[in-house]
Design brief:
This protein is an alpha/beta fold and about 600 residues long. The protein has three domains: about 280 residues, Zn peptidases (Aminopeptidase); about 40 residues, no CATH class; about 180 residues, no CATH class. It contains 19 helices and 19 strands. The protein has an eight-stranded mixed beta sheet with strand order 1-2-4-3-5-9-6-7. It is globular. It starts with a helix and ends with a strand.
Length: about 600
């Protein structure tokens, strides 16, 4: 019956989406799965590589696929800013979809995220075809690997469909928008979790606990010959056996497999407004980004970045081949990946005394790339009259260029035994709980000697960035204090599965710390001050009764001309050195135990 219906609909030129909806209804009446008569041609294929599936077409496609093949399951989880849930589609030869049971069977799990920027839709179409081709036997079923995908992560952006906002991009005909339903760039939100999307992603990520993570994108930036570029998480940052495996085995194997299939690939070309013939630096994926976030739990992460100017059909087919090649690598290395993950975690838990909060390029090491680019020249702009860059595709080149993909520590911190978080900082506690952080409530009011941070200095962005005026170049002063803590405050031991997450968020000097993302901005505002005419007399008495304070004050006036010329600054300095200055100002309210 379904085959006859399909032929009629095809002859009538009714949309693939309508066909899939009808097929889903008909299949729901049929108890037996494994229907092989449905045509699972995607919108991408039926349009000869010119179009991408809409959100509705994509979800319906997976529902019909899951209804037809018992090896596929689709679940809806949580909520997004659009009001719709995220979907998780799982493909497992064993027909088991409980992830704890999957882990008990010692399978590796590969999670694919699509449509975080819905205008970059290559992965949406490529993953639909990949799941179909494995389910129907076109590609051999992975024996040691379970695949999971979020078909479209940015649902609000996907529903905001247009044909103009990807100014630099060559197809598809229409696509979604980069901002989500509340205009957040979701690939900057993984740590701060301002959106429901990010909070639901955390649910999915900790449910799935993937060994390998792929986030599919399309590049912006320079022009070059490649369709495919890869952006693996920075290997020094990942560190240990796992970082070594990523850089020396997984990445080269992927490059080799794709080259054997006539798909050249290069590291993501982190270059704008110039020809990359003098080399380029690896993109540092801090935890605000998807792979930076997933790496905090020792997941091997990479972004696929297809080149924006290549035809859409070519980009989708390249993404398909890349994911297929990654499955082959995970299959071959399933035991090695697990060994590296276990030993990397053991190394962190048992042997590390310090943790690197920020990195800088190691200028003593580079990797030589045999890079395939296009010559460029500066010509006069017919619009502005200024010099502009023009790539010449009739002049391709292949030359060795330096790739700076080694980083060294810039900021390090001693690893505490635990953090103490007062219960009133519920927004922080909720995010820790969302990320499966193990915490212990203090049962009785108690006195604890802790390491305390005072914010010494910081800078703040002058322009808004993803809903925040983010801080940077933060510095703290550390001291030991004996403080009262209340019943219900939280004790959080550092050495647990969420170890990296805790250090990256709770240490103020980390680039993506909760402090730098403005979660503690209330401590930056002084709540009480002084009236100069009142404070003058009290300040004078304070100096007269404290010779050391008076000596320090006079020395500062002598050594600092700006200070000596500013009467208010002088009174303020004395106030801050007195008992009248409020303790909460610049006091970081998360404490460390040693």
């Amino acid at each position: 019956m379904i085959s006859t219906t399909y032929l009629f609909l095809k002859a009538s030129k009714i949309s693939v989406f309508s066909l899939l909806v009808l097929t889903l209804i008909l299949n729901s009446c049929n108890e037996s799965k494994h229907n092989t008569t449905t045509d699972f041609t995607t919108v991408f294929e039926s349009s000869n590589g010119l179009e991408t599936a809409t959100y509705e077409e994509t979800i319906t496609y997976y529902k019909v696929l899951a209804d037809s093949y018992p090896e596929i399951s689709i679940d809806s989880i949580g909520e997004t800013d659009s009001g719709k849930p995220l979907h998780l589609v799982t493909l497992n030869k064993d027909k088991i979809f409980d992830f704890q049971s999957i882990r008990n069977k010692n399978k590796r799990i590969l999670l694919i995220n699509n449509g975080i920027h819905p205008g970059e839709s290559d992965g949406i179409d490529a993953t639909m075809m990949l799941f179909r081709d494995i389910a129907n036997g076109t590609i051999a079923f992975p024996e040691h690997t379970v695949l999971a995908t979020i078909p479209i992560y940015n649902i609000g952006g996907s529903l905001n469909r247009n044909s103009t906002t990807r100014t630099n991009q060559n197809g598809p005909e229409s696509y979604g928008f980069r901002g989500n339903a509340r205009n957040y760039d979701l690939n900057r939100d993984f740590i701060k979790s301002d959106t429901k999307n990010a909070r639901t992603f955390a649910q999915i990520f900790h449910k799935v606990q993937p060994d390998v993570f792929i986030d599919n994108h399309v590049s912006n930036g320079a022009d070059y010959q490649y369709t495919l570029t890869h952006l693996f998480t920075q290997h020094n940052k990942l560190g240990g056996a796992l970082g070594k495996y990523l850089n020396e085995e997984m990445m080269p194997k992927l490059e080799t497999k794709l080259q054997e299939k006539d798909w050249d690939i290069t590291p993501y070309v982190n270059v704008f407004n110039r020809v990359p013939d003098n080399g380029f630096i690896q993109f540092m994926d801090y935890p605000r980004y998807s792979t930076g976030y997933t790496t905090l739990w020792n997941t091997l992460g990479m972004m696929v970045e297809t080149h924006m100017l290549k035809p859409y059909k070519q980009r989708v087919e390249g993404t398909y081949e890349l994911m297929k090649s990654m499955i082959e690598i995970v299959e071959d290395d399933h035991q090695l990946i697990q060994w590296n993950q276990v030993h990397s975690m053991e190394g962190i838990m048992e042997y590390s005394d310090t943790y690197v909060l920020d990195w800088e390029v190691d200028t003593t090491k580079t990797t030589a790339l045999n890079f395939k680019g296009y010559e460029g020249e500066l010509i006069e702009s017919e619009i502005t009259g200024a010099q502009r860059l023009k790539y010449n595709r009739t002049k391709p080149f292949t030359k060795v260029v330096p790739y700076s993909n080694y980083f060294k520590p810039k900021i390090e911190v001693d690893i505490p035994v635990a953090y103490v978080i007062p219960k009133q900082w519920f927004n922080i506690i909720e995010l820790l709980q969302l990320n499966n952080v193990a915490m212990k409530e203090i049962q009785n009011d108690t006195v604890i000697t802790v390491e305390s941070y005072k914010i010494e200095r910081f800078e703040t962005r002058k322009q808004p960035y993803e809903g925040h005026y983010q801080h940077y170049n933060t510095k703290v002063i550390s001291s030991e204090k004996t403080l009262n803590f209340q019943q219900g405050d939280y004790l959080v031991y550092a050495r647990q599965n969420a170890f990296r997450y805790l250090l990256e968020t709770l240490e103020p000097e980390a680039p993506d710390s909760f402090f730098n993302w403005n979660f503690f901005d209330t401590i930056l505002q002084q709540k009480e001050g002084f009236s100069p005419y009142v404070w003058e007399d009290k300040a004078l008495a304070l100096l007269e009764n404290n010779p050391k304070l008076k000596e320090d004050f006079n020395e500062k006036k002598t050594s600092d001309s700006n200070f000596s010329a500013n009467w208010y600054a002088q009174l303020d300095w004395i106030h801050k050195e007195s008992k009248f200055y409020e303790k909460a100002h610049l006091q970081y309210p998360v404490y460390r135990l040693h």
